[in-house]
Amino acid sequence: MASPPDRAPLTDRVEELLADGGPLAIVAAGDPVPRRGTERYDGQLGPDLLARFVAALRLTMRTAPGVGLAAVQVGVPLRIAVLEDPAPVPPEVRSARTRVPQPFRVLVNPSYEPVGTARTGFFEGCLSVPGWQAVVARHAEVRLRGEDEHGRPLDEVFSGWPARIVQHETDHLDGLLHLDRAELRSLSSSEAMTDRWNRPTPRAAAGELGFDLPE
User: Fold this and answer.
1) Is the whole-model pTM more than 0.85?
2) Fewest Cβ atoms nearer than 10 Å: which of 15, 58, 65, 173?
3) Distance from C-alpha of 106 to C-alpha of 117, rounded to nearest angstrom
4) Which candidate, 188, 180, 181, places its Cα nearest to that of 204?
5) In 71-202, which residue ranges form alpha helices assigned H by DSSP?
6) Is residue 162 within 8 Å of residue 138, measured between CB atoms?
7) Would the annotation count 178 as a binding residue?
8) Which residues are known catalytic residues?
9) Mind listing the domains of the chain with CATH numbers?
């Protein structure tokens, strides 16, 4: 019988990350770690360490600030992500993007599949690609399956902006950045977003920068 895999290096790494009790450092694009994908979580950290790690992910996401964060973005190659969106946006933005508040939740071993064929395109940012945004066409509705941090099954349909967050964070766990799916002609600096494209939809940007949006 084969001996079980040695999990000590991973637990040691997580303990080291959590040592100072503050927000974790987010790995930027260009580091190979976010491109290697992740392994399925099956108890590698144990309940207590997992709870502390989830709390650190939550703190890091809120401090950044962001609406989602994958474990691999802090250098831990496990299939775990967190999301939370208070949706502090004007009514016209909320309506155009179907952006509604989402409570904090933990996604363990998540996967998604499209529901229907509708797709929408909006600017997205990423904590691992600071200072830049790009338009990404994504499924308007997805079915998420996985577990929560307590091992309870998740099977839920998300639509609108929450579906976008689910896809963005789950993609991270597969070694994908949002730029891999983006309309690269839409790539815009934070300054350009503030000065030109800070609108409910990217339609004006599509016309002026020369890229297509989903019908």
Assistant:
1) yes
2) 65
3) 27
4) 188
5) 91-97, 160-173, 190-192
6) no
7) no
8) 169
9) 20-122+138-180 (3.90.45.10)
